[in-house]
User: What shape does this take?
Amino acid sequence: MKRKLRLLFVFLSVAALFSSLLLGCSTDKNDSLKKVRVAEVTRSIFYAPQYVAIEKGFFKEEGLDVQLTTTWGGDKTMTALLSNGADVALVGSETSIYVYAQGTKDPVINFAQLTQTDGTFLVARKKPEFFSWDQLNGSTFLGQRKGGMPQMAGEFGLKKHGIDPQNDLTMIQNIDFANIANAFASGTGDYVQLFEPTASLFEQQGIGYIVASFGTESGKIPYTTFMSKESYLKENRETMQKFTRAIYKAQLWVENHTAAETAKVIAPYFEDTTIELIETVVDRYKSQHSFALNPILDEEEWNNLQNIMKEAGELPKEVKHEELVNTKLAENAVK
Assistant: This one.
């Protein structure tokens, strides 16, 4: 009996030692990864390549431990970045212009583009036999927040088709982003500007019908980009090079795989959305080339962004491409 107890003690001691060694190796391995805190403006299928980079291990391959937080709003996202609550922000490029216009000594620099079109769709309450933009004349339109990129791209699309947003229809802009869909579902408005997957979900449920894409109408713009403070980029250049390289790997992966394959990978980020709906949304964004094929934010896209802001009366000052955009990291990643 005593011999069995001694053997059991030896076995447990060896097992404990082995486990502690494994734990030590695991901890050392995790500690060897460079932490990068990312604040995303919202949780969206629109950002599929970012989630692919995490789930497929592209960041870890580069020695990075990306800690993702959803900050729910452009103002909150930029506040997190400026107050050092985040190292990288994923948000619309217009926010970097707003910060720059306020005279900051440490400007926010766009270094990797994730999406290259607007991500919203025009949803009509009634399904038309055919759609033409002039059908919006005299209607009530539920728009997005004034000064935000969705609203500016939406107004740009309306004006492109000869519609004055302030005079040719009733524009509602005083509803919080989180409540716009609910307001439309409860009967407010003839048309609404919605992101996915809500637009497709409404179509499935017969609440509304997608009749046009604002992404197609507004053309290529740096709609959502990764950005950091200039000081952080200088002090962590190699880390940000690795980060950008991982994003590019994910962009290529999404481009070269089916919507169904992408949907399967990113599904854990959208537990309340069916895999079929995720696939539908990914396919729609891929078909209109919303996902950037590489992280390079070129000058033409930057100027298009400022033109849209200027048209909406929201451009505080014109800013040269080289002032707020660093393309070197993205260009190196593509090489």
User: Anything to note?
Assistant: The chain has two domains: 34-117+221-334, 120-218. The chain is about 50% helix and 15% strand.
